Amino acid sequence: MSAYLDKLFSLHGKVAIVTGASRGIGAFLVHALTEAGAYTVGIGRSSASENPFFEGSEYCQCDILDHANFAAICGSVFAAKGRVDILVNAAGITLPASEGIDALKMFENTISTNLLAVNSTCQSAVNFMKKIGGGSIINVTSIASVMGFPGNPAYVASKGGVRMLTKALALDLAEHNIRVNNLVPGYIRTDMTEASFQDPIRYDERLQHMMIKRWGVTEDLAGAAIYLASNASNYVTGSDLLVDGGWTAKGM
Are 170 and 213 contacting, i.e. CB atoms less than 8 angstroms apart? Predict the structure, then answer.
């Protein structure tokens, strides 16, 4: 890498915390940020990540609904490394309506995990970002944050809420040199979307919305995440960076 590109995109010397790191997008973003030079701490509910963590990263078990535990982990990371520069909120759930399931309870659980906990993790990380004079928060939303999708109102509402939370936090935290942006994936093949991927009808239905005629993979998010975490995006805050194969821009 040239000195110029290194100055723009390198994360050397930075410390990142990534939620939802036990699998899927979160697990991959731990890898991506670590490869870009950050020391990365992955947070997940599972006892261990499905992906191996390499030198320069570690995994901590924590349910982000346990606000005190997450705040304590941020404190431990700061005590050990002297900084918290980057927070990536990749944790999330989807609970489509099912017969015999309490729809109201499902809605409340989705909002609690996908929206309320994101606000809490942001506040915890911000306390330490202020101590070092700045930072970058990346909230992983979804194209469901900007478009209506059927059969899962809780997920759409929660991701739409995070989208606007990001913009509000970006305004409130700008004076502290803390940037807050949304990373907005389209249909990425993960455990969450595997059933749709394997169903020929649903696979093709989704493919027809994409300009780039393939489903996304987690690796497609690496460049966008590194950009938002790095000096390359120093003048970017309150924004939505869509990585959706052209889904939201496509007309006929």
Answer: no
**d(C-alpha 162, C-alpha 160), whole Å:** 5
Q: What is the pLDDT of residues 154-187, one digit of tens each?
A: 999 999 999 999 999 999 999 999 999 999 999 9
Closest Cα partner for 115 from 56, 164, 74? 164
Q: Which of 51, 55, 31, 16 minimizes the C-alpha distance to 222? A: 31
Q: Where are the alpha helices (DSSP H) in the chain?
A: 3-9, 24-35, 67-81, 103-111, 117-132, 153-173, 194-198, 200-207, 222-229
CA 125 to chain centre: 14
Is the pLDDT at 123 greater than 80, yes or no?
Answer: yes
Q: Which residues contact 205 (CB under 8 A, 6 or more apart)?
A: none
Two tokens at 129?
Answer: 């970002």
Active centre residues (catalytic):
155
Domains of the chain and CATH, by start: 3-190+217-241 (3.40.50.720)
Structure tokens, 59: 């995994």
